Amino acid sequence: GLDWRGVVEGARGTAFPHLAWYGWEAAWRLMDAPVPAEVLEELAPPRWQRVLAGRFFSDARLLGAELARSKPAWVAAKLLLAPRAGDMARYSLRRVENAVRARWG
Questions:
Q1: Whole-angstrom Cα distance, residue 20 to residue 101?
Q2: Is there a contact between 59 and 28 (Cβ–Cβ < 8 Å)?
Q3: How far is 63 from 49, CA to CA, in rounded Å?
Q4: Closest Cα to residue 11, out of 1, 24, 20?
Q5: DSSP assignment of 58-80, as one string?
Q6: Residue 9's pLDDT is what?
Q7: Best-predicted range by mean pLDDT among 64-68, 78-82, 90-94?
Q8: How many CB atoms lie within 10 A of CB 70?
Q9: Which of 43, 61, 70, 96 is the most buried (most CB within 10 A)?
Q10: pLDDT for 63 beyond 70
Q11: What is the pLDDT of residues 12-44, one digit of tens each?
């Protein structure tokens, strides 16, 4: 089976460990994936982010690809759900700068 300890350690070794929780929690909640409760507990972001994640990643929004079709909603989700908003804001600014350079040189 899946090495869940490795999943937790791998997620914690990244700059954005909460992203693993968002994916695994949605898989558990929406598809009844066999994700151990202790894995979700160890990777869980603060409660306020868990509540927001439930709204951003509801079954209706995921099935309707709502975040994929709305750039402002996707940016808001990334900023609000990031473990450290400053890191995500800097990353987003770099992406904007790269897009501007690519378009206008």
A1: 31
A2: no
A3: 21
A4: 20
A5: -HHHHHTTHHHH-HHHHHHHHHH
A6: 96
A7: 90-94
A8: 13
A9: 43
A10: no
A11: 998 778 888 888 988 898 889 999 999 999 998
